[in-house]
Specification:
single chain; Elongation Factor Tu (Ef-tu), domain 3
Length: 149
């Protein structure tokens, strides 16, 4: 498995060098409960809510034998993600089923446009590695139907 983050149709791509120990995707529904005089509470099934995912791992400051990718070091990852945040554009999260040399080789489990909700990072120990927590939320592109006049 590999995890990729990219911006602007792969203008810049990050392959996470260290996979998170785990990840969970939160996927809910916008159901609503109403109180009806003759029946009491009733539930109406709504539309799916936006999915979200939190990734926790670290960006290495030096080479390790277990790295999935070594294109960048430590703070460069942070700089790129902070730059993406400041651009205020959606990013793409791809989680592949198999090991992939590049984003083009990936066989996707998840392929989702996202916004960066929170990005927390810092140094914990003397290695200089940057530990981070990145929370992403699904971004849906608005599709409007055009009606003839």
């Amino acid at each position: 498995m590999d995890i990729f983050l990219s911006v602007n149709n792969r203008e810049q791509v990050i392959k996470l060098p260290v996979l998170p120990a785990e990840f969970r995707i939160q996927s809910g529904m916008k159901n609503e409960i109403y109180d009806v005089i003759s029946q009491g509470e009733v539930k109406l099934i709504g539309m799916p809510s936006l999915k979200s995912i939190t990734l926790e791992a670290f960006f290495p400051n030096k080479g390790y034998s277990f790295l999935r990718d070594d294109e960048y070091k430590g703070w460069r990852y942070v700089e790129m993600i902070e730059e993406w945040k400041s651009r205020r554009v959606p990013i793409r999260l791809i989680i592949s089923k198999k090991d992939a040399k590049s984003i083009e080789d990936s066989s996707d489990i998840i392929n989702m446009a996202c916004t960066i909700e929170t990005f927390e990072y810092g140094v914990r120990d003397g290695t200089g590695d940057i530990y981070y927590t990145l929370t992403l939320q699904e971004f849906k592109f608005i599709e409007l139907e055009q009606k003839g006049v």
